[in-house]
Amino acid sequence: VTLGIIQTLGLQIRASGEMHVNLQGCDFVFEPDYDLMSLADLELFIKQNKHLPEISPAIDMETEQGYPVGKLSSQLLQKIEELTLYILELNTRIEKLENENSKLKNE
Predict the structure, then answer these.
(1) What is the pLDDT of residues 58-71, one digit of tens each?
(2) Per-residue pLDDT tens digits for 12-54
(3) Which of 6, 23, 29, 90 could form a disulfide with 81 if both were Cys (CB 3.0 to 4.6 A apart)?
(4) Are strands 11-16 and 3-8 parallel, antiparallel or unpaired?
(5) Has residue 6 got a pLDDT over 70?
(6) Which residues pair with 5 in a beta bridge?
């Protein structure tokens, strides 16, 4: 195992092998009763708040104390899983529109 110190942008990170962080899993996003925000509500939230729901604004992360890596990793994982659900939803809508379009062309 190599011990190293990295200094960049005023940060000092000490590394010894791999970094491990305890995370809260986010599989709850895939449960049938998960309340996924509508895309319209998400767009409105972003316009009003300038950040994603459940993700702290940048100013809160840019403090001297920093921001907990484990918490941020869990939040980002949740957002990735939500994005996956949005993509699947949009793909279903696209396929439906393509089928309707195809039927109209064949009339």
Answers:
(1) 998 888 778 888 88
(2) 555 566 666 677 789 999 999 999 999 999 999 999 999 999 9
(3) 29
(4) antiparallel
(5) no
(6) 14
Q: Measured between alpha carbons, how far is 96 from 105 in angstroms, rounded to an integer?
A: 14
Instruction: Sort 65 into a burial class: Cβ within 10 Å, 0-12 / 13-18 / 19+.
Output: exposed
2 Cβ contact list (under 8 Å, min separation 6): 15, 16, 17
pTM over 0.85: no
CA 6/CA 14 separation, integer angstroms: 6
Name residue, tokens 């049938």: 32
Q: Give backbone dihedrals phi and psi of 94, rounded to 5 degrees, phi first.
A: -65, -45
